[in-house]
């Protein structure tokens, strides 16, 4: 991933790499407004801090065992 700019914004390619998804998936999330983004001119940019929040908000917790054994 390239070095962050002064503003802390990263490109679509860098954001996709950060999230471990392909760019088409990321563009789909942008279109559906599922992920926070910034438009600079006509270019999409992402804040790393917002991507980290996105990851945390989509995290699933492990279920506690109910005493069942397989």
Compact overview of the structure:
By secondary structure, the protein is of the alpha+beta class. It has helices spanning 12-19, 23-31, 48-57; strands spanning 9-10, 38-40, 43-47.
Question: Could you explain the architecture of this structure?
Answer:
This protein has about 70 residues and is an alpha+beta fold. About 40% of the residues lie in helices and about 15% in strands. The protein contains 3 helices and 3 strands; from the N terminus they run E-H-H-E-E-H. It has helices at about 10-20, 25-30, 50-55, and strands at about 10, 40, 45. A 3-stranded antiparallel β-sheet has the order 1-3-2. Strand 2 (about 40) and strand 3 form a beta hairpin. Helix 1 (about 10-20) crosses helix 2 (about 25-30). The longest helix is centred in the last third of the chain and has 10 residues, at about 50-55. The model has no long low-confidence stretch (mean pLDDT about 90).
Short key terms for the protein model shown above:
alpha+beta, 39% helix, 70 residues
Order of strands, main sheet, comes to 1-3-2
What is the CA-CA span between the terminal residues? 43 Å
Oligomer: single chain
Helix % is: 25-40%
Radius of gyration over all CA atoms, rounded: 16 Å
| Overall mean pLDDT | 88
Unreliable stretches covering 5 or more consecutive residues:
none
Task: Label the structural class.
Answer: alpha+beta
How many helices? The count is 3
The total strand number stands at 3
List the helices and strands and how they pair.
Blueprint (H helix, E strand, L loop, with lengths): L8 E2 L1 H8 L3 H9 L6 E3 L2 E5 H10 L13
Antiparallel strand pairs: 1-3, 2-3
